[in-house]
Design goal:
Blueprint (H helix, E strand, L loop, with lengths): L10 H9 L18 H24 L3 H15 L13 H24 L4
Helix pairs in contact: 2-3
Length: 120
């Protein structure tokens, strides 16, 4: 079986390709299931941000200012993720779903092409 070259030559290039293409943030194929619909994923960042803010407060009270600052930076990044200005963080439910959809689509394509080649 011959090697199937991926469309993306580097991780950074693949990452950029996904965050700059709103297709991956929609509900088209591949479908990941009802729990991972666009509508449900749009609601999740607010829940994640709430959890991170509570952790930030806890770390501030404990005197862990560096960790609290990092958590604040992450909160700001997730809060600013909008169509056309995606954060690209794997901690972001919307971006994580987009990366998963792109990965599934790529894997399906590779498997389809591999199945069309004769073995041996």
């Amino acid at each position: 079986m011959s090697f199937i070259r991926p469309k993306f030559s580097t991780f950074v290039q693949a990452h950029e390709e996904v965050i700059h293409n709103e297709y991956w943030y929609g509900d088209g194929p591949p479908v990941l299931g009802k729990s991972f619909s666009k509508t449900k994923t749009i609601e999740r960042p607010y829940q994640v941000i709430d959890i991170i803010r509570r952790a930030e407060k806890r770390e501030t009270k404990a005197g862990n200012d560096i960790l609290a600052s990092a958590l604040q930076t992450l909160t700001d990044k997730l809060a600013s993720c909008t169509p056309g200005f995606r954060c690209g963080s794997c901690a972001c439910p919307q971006c994580a779903r987009a990366f998963q959809r792109a990965k599934v689509a790529s894997q399906e394509e590779c498997i389809k092409r591999a199945g069309q080649e004769p073995c041996g």
